[in-house]
Amino acid sequence: MFEVRAPGRVNLIGDHTDYQGGFCLPMAIDREVVVRAQGRTDGLVRARSDSFAGVVEIPADGSRGPETVARPWGRAIAAVLQELAALGRPPVGFDADITSTVPVGSGLSSSAAFMVAVALTAARVGSLAIEPRALALVAQASEQASTGVPCGVMDQMASVFGRAGHALLLDCRSLDIEAVPLPPPVAVVVIHTGVARKLEDSAYAERRAACEAAARRAGVALLRDATLDQVADDPIARHVVSENQRVLDFVQALRAGDLERSGQLMISSHASLRDDFRVSTAELDALVDALVDAGALGARLTGAGFGGCAVGLVAADAVDDVVGHAVARYRSGTGLTPTSFVVHAVDGAGLVEGGL
Q: With the CA atoms of 261, 263, 267 and 270 taken in that order, what torsion angle do they form, in degrees rounded to the nearest 10?
């Protein structure tokens, strides 16, 4: 019997840049998926989850395609087993009890954390050595196969490579990572709008296709390589190009201790996601405005948009006051009940008693 954990993530800045080879700045958070597992001798994987109903039973050899599994969370497990089988994982079965403290549909990468945790479990049971980047790529491919969403790699990389006390500057083309210390005078606050988002039902795939078309028009392989002048008349592409620069500017501001500048960049990022990329919602806009007006240094939607959470950068000694005022205003204006929590940057996925 053993346990593995994989954290969710919050993205401080840099959304919808990862699938265009750009930059982003996520951090792994102290909300996680935990799998408690034990090997079986009959070649089956049998799993239960505290977040989803039922029991899933799937052949451990990866022979069952995710599309044949009735339960969506079971499709995820089938996809992981299929990806790992292609890497030579022996068909060793296991029992898995899965628990999670990452809110589903929040934009905090509950699905990526789930995939990483299951993949790490299956690899360990099968004595399959897998490098951390390969683990992240397996989790990404599994999510794409099981949901049909052409997700980027940011979420999985953050879950695997998280570092306590740091955000991660991720180059999504090279997959290079640089740990960026978070200044101690600030806290990272996450507030859920009360409106869940589901990428399968969103325009995520449409936005990605629009980015790919924009790159072709600009004559570049990825919008990472386009200039603002090349995309000035294309709002979708303009967001990606300008967001990449905001990520780099944000990192520079953090390193310089310029928290005011960091906050301004978050606000600009949200405006770009709202006005150019058009993935915000009325609820997210109201929540970001409430946070800023209550005294947050900066705030923005986090994740793909279309619902879920906003993230705020708040002076550590003002968290209770800022969050209290923002939540009250949001509740009064929308009639919705938000959920707020302070998150801390943690280490990435691994055995509960140790790292990868």
A: 120
Q: Exactly one of 15, 18, 61, 155 is catalytic; name it.
A: 155
Average pLDDT taken over every residue of the chain: 95
Here the contacts of 327-336 (C-beta below 8 Å, separation 24 or greater) are: 327/191, 327/290, 329/290, 329/293, 329/294, 330/191, 330/193, 330/286, 330/287, 330/290, 333/286, 333/290, 334/194, 334/283, 334/286, 336/193, 336/194, 336/195, 336/283
Q: pLDDT (tens digit, 9 = 90+) per residue, 290-340?
A: 999 999 999 999 988 998 999 999 999 999 999 999 999 999 999 999 999
Q: What is the pLDDT of residue 245?
A: 98
Clarify whether 61 is annotated catalytic. Answer: no
Residue 132 φ then ψ, to 5°: -55, -45
pLDDT tens-digit profile of 186-207? 999 999 999 887 655 568 889 9
State which fold the 182-343 domain adopts.
Answer: Alpha-Beta Plaits (3.30.70)
Give domain limits for the chain: 2-174, 182-343
Question: For 146-173, b where at least 16 C-beta lie within 10 A, e where not — what string?
Answer: bbebbbbbbbbbbbbbbbeebbbbbbbe
For 2-174, which CATH class? Answer: alpha beta
Question: Residue ranges of the alpha helices (H) in the chain?
Answer: 72-86, 110-125, 132-147, 154-161, 204-218, 235-256, 259-275, 282-293, 319-334
